[in-house]
Amino acid sequence: MSSRYALVAALVAVFAFFSVATTTFLTPGNLESILVNNFALLAIVSLGMTLAIAAGGIDLSVGTAIDIASLIFVSAVAAHVAMPLAVLGGLAGGLLVGAFNAGLIAGLRITPFLATLGTLFIGQSVQQLSTSGGQPIYLITGHVPPVFAFIGHGTVLGIPFAMIVVGGCAAIFATILGRSLFGRRVEALGAQPGVAWYSGLRVSRDTAWVYLLGSLVCAIAGILLSCTVRAYVPLSGNAYLLNAIGATFLGTTFSRVGRPNVAGTLLGVLLLNIVANGLLLIGWNFYWQQVGSGVLIFLVLVVSFGGGRARSTRAA
Description:
The structure is a single chain. The protein contains 13 helices and four strands. The protein has 316 residues and is mostly helical. Strand 2 (155-156) and strand 3 (159-160) form a beta hairpin. Helix 6 (146-153) crosses helix 10 and helix 8 (181-191) crosses helix 10 (203-229).
């Protein structure tokens, strides 16, 4: 079997294992929970991370974009602002985080790791200062517009609205990375940044767009999260950071050249969610779930890249 499909093999293996290990894994309610409650939000966030890593960077502030968007959106809904304006406010909040990152990285030439780490810390402080030390903002169920509930729990032709959003975002990002001139420039930035710079590409402009688009898609996740839990919970977006990074790097094994790609990232998200859900069902506590996920990521990467090196050695 080609090492490119190590991720698919791991996905099939864990799905089969948990199907046998616990009788509740294959129930419709549990499968729906995996896809809607767990997969959708992480998948959207991971798309932004995929774009950043494809450009040779990383975005440690995805949680900040989620939280700022959620804070503005929920605050607007609580103040009885019209839903379209509340959504636009949330998206603008996420874009503000992206613009801040873009200024640091593309403008001041600060490395993405340090720039987005700084944004992460600043975002945490802003949230705590804005919420009296980190107090959640809850919305009373009977006092929210119907569209609010629809965004979080509604369906279209039997398909959860959240999954439709995932599909739309995935299609857009797949087109950007795979079929657009901008996507080719992003790939050049990630693969050979020096060559991209000296070939006359507008590196600063493209880098800025990478972090703006990444934060925008995270803002969409923040709005979905708010509508799902009917609240803003400070710092909750940070829970998606490490899994988004893990899913993106798992997804690189699905590429012939080991590059971040949308299909691979989505498979990585699904794998991580199935593992977390299955380990919970068989009774493992949270800390062992993290160990299990980490070991699985390590094994997939070893099998994939180890197989690739072996083929290169034989070819030589």
